[in-house]
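Table 4 source record.
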Amino acid sequence: MSRAYRISLKESVSRSTDIKDKLSFKLQVLEILPREAMSSILAAELKGLGFEECEEEGVWTKEEDGVVTIVDPKTFEVRVEAKETLEIELEEEREAWGDEDYGDRDGERARARLVKDLETKADAAELAKQKELTERLEKALPGIGKTFERVANKVMAEGLKRKAATLGEIQDIQENEETGELSIRIRI
């Protein structure tokens, strides 16, 4: 005859997970001057926008609303990242039945189901946080895209001005920052 036992189970899951999302793109800047000169123009522009130089890595960074923008002026590469550490602490108690005749004396199957349910909840929490980070990044992208379009235009405009100065005497400069148009008249 089968004997069933009532078992109280208590399990917990604890995780610390780094969750991140990122993308990268290259600034479309023509090499009007040697690369080093164009890089220094870009670095000056980034400083004016509030970016901070990280000298050991040779990049410029800026954080806004949990989104970090990293620019390498030597390669003209821009990385945009959102990251966060998620601490998950889940605990649950359940009542189960153990049965000696069916080989589940200690309720191991019930315990395994409980652990699996907790792991599923933890995975869902990670997925929700990943989705939140992706949405945060997507929300920031239009502003970042416009900013770097203007930065690329300003860097090329400054490069053109410097190049024009080497060709002759600059007579007139007309610049429209909104459209990115630049007209330089020089006397050779």
